[in-house]
Fold Metal ABC transporter substrate-binding protein.
Amino acid sequence: MPQLRTDGQAHSGLRTHLTRALLGAALVVPLLAGGCGRSGTGGAPDGRPLVLTTFTILADMARQVAGERVRVESITKLGAEIHGYEPSPSDLKRASGAQMVLENGFGLERWAERFYASLRDVPHVTLTEGITPLPIASDAYRGQPNPHAWMSPRLAKVYVENIRRALTRLDPAGETTFRRNAERYNAQLDALHNELQLSLARIPPSQRVLATCEGAFSYLARDYGLTEAYLWPVNAEAQITPQRMARLIALVKERQVPAVFCESTVSAEPQKQVARQSGARFGGVFHVDSLSLPDGPAPNLLELQRHNVRTLQAGLAGS
Ligand SMILES: [Zn+2]
């Protein structure tokens, strides 16, 4: 399987560039194939409406609700760094065939402004509408909304409802289908919530520290009583400073955290350094901002959550 991580590169812009270059070399991604040749009213080549999402996790959620009625594609590819993404000319060209864009909001998609400026007639729908954000706790983005609300299964149901409403506006004849699909998916998210509660309750309370690269687990940590620790609050400002590293090393030592982790879309190298200097192990890679390849550990949001919790449990238990 192609490696989607870009170990050894710390700068976020460089990471983005390299991730995209790696993906371009490693994968034949069909995501960019459709919708380019159309002009005017747009739509997919098969006649179905084309809805774009800003990243792969939203595409998965939208497909769960859309079923076969709507074609859903992600603007950013699998493995891409989504905070500092730089849209390509082909992204913009493809977007001209779309009839709707679904975005996360909470400041995640500042890079998408170019899309919206060039797509004046294409509505974009914010899927965090109705969610009260948790603020980013520190540094340059302090006080701004933490964008990773999809990491809470409970809040993911708000996304589902916003997707259902948006698709119904786009394709009113699909109302019954979208409602049924949304109900089924919400039941799966409820089951996932119960599953995560049971799994995480098995970790001794003193060990419930999730130490990773990005502060992307704030919503999950709040929902399941975990302490979150990270190297940088949000990938958009992923600067490695000695202070941040020292702070995390001190916390890992103080709490005797047996394992630290990182995410699939950024370099794990700084966190491996934390592991070496704190005596913790490097416990593995979480998926947060992107799904994995279809045959990887996180092909959809439900499996992504299960993979992360398994990785956390195995890392913390392996001490
Ligand atoms: Zn992120």
The beta strands are 50-53, 71-74, 100-103, 124-126, 209-214, 227-232, 259-263, 281-286. Residues 175-201 form the longest helix (27 residues). Confidence is low (pLDDT under 50) at residues 1-42.
